User: Fold this.
Amino acid sequence: MLALTACGGSDGGDSTTGADGIKVGKGVGDSEINLGILTDYSGPIAQAATSGSIGLEIKLDQVEASGF
Assistant:
């Protein structure tokens, strides 16, 4: 029910190569990756969507705290 996506989905000529040789594009930089979530916050799945978003935020905070 949750869809996690990096901002920007096509190569579209906007990508570059980072200092470490890894190809990056919109939403991806040397020190950060922008993420978004697409879900319904109203209607019959609102409670699950809100819980999923909070859970994702907690997990991403854990990953960031680990230095990954």
